[in-house]
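Technical annex B. To support the medicinal chemistry partners, we prepared a structural model of the target in complex with zinc ion, based solely on the information shown next.
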Amino acid sequence: MKCDEGYRCEVCGEDVTSIVESDLYLRFVIGELDPETLHTSAERHLRCNPVLAQFICDDRFEPVVVDGPMAKSGLDHDFVSERTQLVSAGYRRLLEIIEWDGDRDMTEYPLPGVVERYR
Ligand SMILES: [Zn+2]
């Protein structure tokens, strides 16, 4: 799936039309989703998974705020800063990937340092 093929979001029922709005692909590039399960896991918009999306800090992403026990405001400061770094890097990675020319192997998607963990 690059831009042409849509997968339906299990939360809102709308199509996830690009990997830059895909919760699945973001978790894949940061090393939190086993590639084996990529095609069998339910797709969601990043925005429809606010617990993850709240850690995206980038001008191109409208900030997401979570209430309740999973809100980053209530989490450990070090955890939040590490998580923000990782998840934001993952988001920027997705923006990079859609700029790539031609089709590349999915194994090239994850962030540097993450690829090794999947081997
Ligand atoms: Zn959705």
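Notes passed to the chemistry partners:
The two ends are 22 Å apart (CA to CA).
The CA atoms of residues 57 and 88 lie 6 Å apart.
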